[in-house]
Structures are given as C-alpha cells and as structure tokens.
C-alpha cells in the first residue's frame, strides 16, 4: 500500500491532480484525527485537515520522496493547529477588547446573545475531563502528547515532525506528562 | 536515592524506554521504600492510560471530495511554463 501511495505522490509531483485523491483517502483518517485532538472540535478540525492537504498539494515539489510522507503531513497539520490555537487565545481573556469595537469587551458579548458564564461552565462540565485536560495544555506540549500517546509515534518521528532535537522532545514530554498528571490524578 | 526529583526523572526515562539496567534497578529499589514516589509513578501510568482511552472520531463524509474541490485548478509550475 505504501508503495502504491508513493507512486501516486510521484504522479502528483508530475502534475497529475487526480492522483492526489488516493493520497487524501489514504491519510485523511490520521490527519483529521490529529487535528481534532489538537483543536478539540470537529468543525475546526475539518477545516484545518483540509487546509493541511491543500498546503501539501501546493508545496508537493518541496517534498522529498525518500522521506516519509506521513511525517511531512503531520508536520504541516501540527504547525497549522498550533498557529490556530495561538490565534484564538486572546478570546479566552474576558477583559480583552474586541478588535475594532472600542470599549466593547467579552463581558458585553456574553450578555448580548452569547452563552452566559453559567451555561459556559455547565457545558464544560459535560465535556470529558480527559479531552478537557488535553485541550488545556500549552500547544507545544499538546502536540507532543497527542503525537506520542494518541498517534503512537516514536520519539524520533516526533522530533522530525516538530523539527526539534530529540532532547527537547523528551523534555517537553516530561513536562506534558507531569501537567497531565496534575490535572488527571483525581479523576 | 537522595531525593524524589531524581526518582521522578528516572520514572520519565522509564516511560520513554530510555534507561540503563543500573538506573532501572535504582528506580525499583527506591520505589520499594518510598510511598510518595510509588504514588507518583502510579499516577503517571494512570495518566497515560487515560490519555490513550480518548475516543477516536470518524472522518466527515465527503472529506476527500471537499479537498479536491478546494485545490487550485492547475499547478503554478505548469502555468509558468506556458
């Protein structure tokens, strides 16, 4: 199967767009899953997983066929997810002003039509504590925890995907596990 | 072993499958006599089991089609050559 996919990738490199369909079908499960675990919701995950494949297609010339395609895809998906998480972070601060709306902060947004703080808390309580704990991890630890324990990749592969030294992978894995332990010890 | 910190470091090495036989023996003998570290080790292993128990999600239907529809019409490279 891997050999077949490699052939298809080579065809895509030659300009055969239709060959990319098989490539997507083959990797979509893993990439969608990864985005979902990074972002915590289906809608954003679908959007980013699609974006991952589009970026891969547009940049296919820079992919070296001697390397693993899945590693390359995971790298694109992880970087996009981390970017997305960082961009949405300001929304979490209730006091933050919303761009272009002088003096209008998140409190007034909540009062006007949005969910009330109480509803917010109730819906959070319904979420599984585990998914919650994962989603609260800082993005650089989250990526590693997800790749290691949900995607079950080796430390070497994670180092390739995240483009960081093996020692850094181990340090972040250490901190990520400790952070998760503190959140889940009483579950 | 002098302190818990050292033992915790070894626990993580153990979880990464990255330790010598000597280190493994040192960790084992420390755990035998230290309840705090036993608890910590147990929590770490439980944490990993919990993380792994997260349910998986199905890919949305028509995902592949959705991507194919959003691809640029032609590769730029091809267009430039004209």
From TrEMBL, chain A:
Signal peptide: none annotated. SUPFAM superfamilies: Sigma2 domain of RNA polymerase sigma factors, Sigma3 and sigma4 domains of RNA polymerase sigma factors. Residues 27-89 form the RNA polymerase sigma-70 region domain. InterPro entries: RNA_pol_sigma-70-like, RNA_pol_sigma-70_dom, RNA_pol_sigma-W_bacilli, RNA_pol_sigma70_ECF_CS, RNA_pol_sigma70_r2, RNA_pol_sigma70_r4_t2, RNA_pol_sigma_r2, RNA_pol_sigma_r3/r4-like. Residues 129-180 form the RNA polymerase sigma factor 70 region 4 type domain. CDD domains: Sigma70_r4. Keywords: DNA-binding, Sigma factor, Transcription, Transcription regulation. Coiled coil: none annotated. Belongs to the sigma-70 factor family. ECF subfamily. This is RNA polymerase sigma factor. It comes from Virgibacillus xinjiangensis. The gene is sigW.
């Amino acid at each position: 199967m891997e050999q077949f996919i490699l052939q298809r990738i080579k065809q895509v490199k030659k300009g055969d767009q239709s060959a990319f369909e098989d490539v997507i079908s083959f990797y979509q499960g893993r990439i969608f899953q990864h985005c979902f675990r990074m972002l915590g919701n289906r809608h954003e995950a679908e959007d980013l997983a699609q974006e991952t494949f589009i970026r891969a297609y547009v940049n296919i010339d820079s992919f070296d066929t001697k390397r693993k395609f899945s590693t390359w895809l995971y790298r694109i998906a992880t970087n996009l997810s981390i970017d997305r998480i960082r961009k949405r972070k300001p929304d979490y601060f209730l006091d933050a002003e919303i761009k272009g709306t002088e003096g209008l902060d998140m409190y007034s947004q909540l009062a006007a039509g949005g969910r009330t703080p109480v509803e917010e808390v109730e819906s959070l309580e319904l979420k599984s504590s585990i998914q919650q704990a994962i989603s609260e991890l800082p993005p650089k630890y989250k990526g590693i925890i997800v790749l290691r324990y949900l995607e079950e990749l080796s430390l070497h592969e994670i180092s390739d995907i995240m483009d960081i030294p093996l020692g850094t992978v181990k340090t972040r894995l250490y901190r990520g596990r400790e952070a998760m332990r503190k959140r889940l010890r009483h579950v | 072993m002098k302190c818990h910190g050292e033992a915790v470091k070894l626990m993580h090495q153990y979880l990464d499958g990255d330790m010598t036989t000597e280190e493994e023996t040192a960790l084992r003998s420390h755990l035998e006599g230290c309840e705090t570290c036993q608890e910590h080790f147990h929590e770490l292993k439980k944490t990993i089991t919990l993380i792994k128990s997260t349910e998986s999600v199905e890919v949305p239907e028509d995902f592949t089609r959705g991507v194919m529809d959003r691809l640029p019409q032609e590769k730029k490279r091809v267009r430039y050559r004209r």
